[in-house]
Amino acid sequence: MSGLEKVKLATDELEATRLCDVECLTQTEAGEIMGVSRGTVQRLVVSGRKKIVEAILNGRVLMIE
C-alpha cells in the first residue's frame, strides 16, 4: 500500500458523515452533537463523501487523520 496515493479524511468529516449517513440524524442534530452549525456539518459531509468516493473509484488509500 505504500505506493498507492492517499486520500486524507479528517476525523470531523468522518464523524459528520457517520452521524448523518449511518445514524440517520439530520444535519441539525449532528451539529448539536458535534457542537457546530448545521452549515458546518453540511460542508463536512459533502467533503467527506467526495473523499470517500474518490478513494473507492480511484483505488486510493483512505486515511483517517
Q: Brief description of this entry?
A:
Helices cover 63% and strands 12% of the residues. It contains three helices and two strands, in the order βαααβ. It has a two-stranded parallel sheet.
Task: Provide structural commentary.
It contains 3 helices and 2 strands. Helices cover 63% and strands 12% of the residues. The model has no long low-confidence stretch (mean pLDDT 95). It has helices at residues 11-22, 27-34, 38-58; strands at 6-9, 61-64. The chain has a single domain, classed as Arc Repressor Mutant, subunit A. The chain starts with 5 loop residues before the first strand and ends with a strand. With 65 residues, the protein is an alpha+beta fold. The protein is elongated, with a radius of gyration of 13 Å. The longest helix is centred in the C-terminal third of the chain and has 21 residues, at 38-58. It has a two-stranded parallel ribbon with strand order 1-2.
Largest sheet: 2 strands, parallel
The CATH topology comes to Arc Repressor Mutant, subunit A
Roughly what is the average pLDDT, rounded to an integer?
95
Question: Numbering strands along the chain, what is their spatial order in the largest sheet?
Answer: 1-2
Low-confidence runs: none
CATH C-level category: Mainly Alpha
Q: Total strand count, please?
A: 2
What percent of the residues sit in helical stretches (DSSP H or I)?
55-70%
The total count of helices amounts to: 3
Please indicate the percent range of residues in DSSP E strands (runs of 2 or more). 5-15%
User: What kind of assembly state do the chains in view correspond to?
Assistant: single chain
Radius of gyration: 13 Å
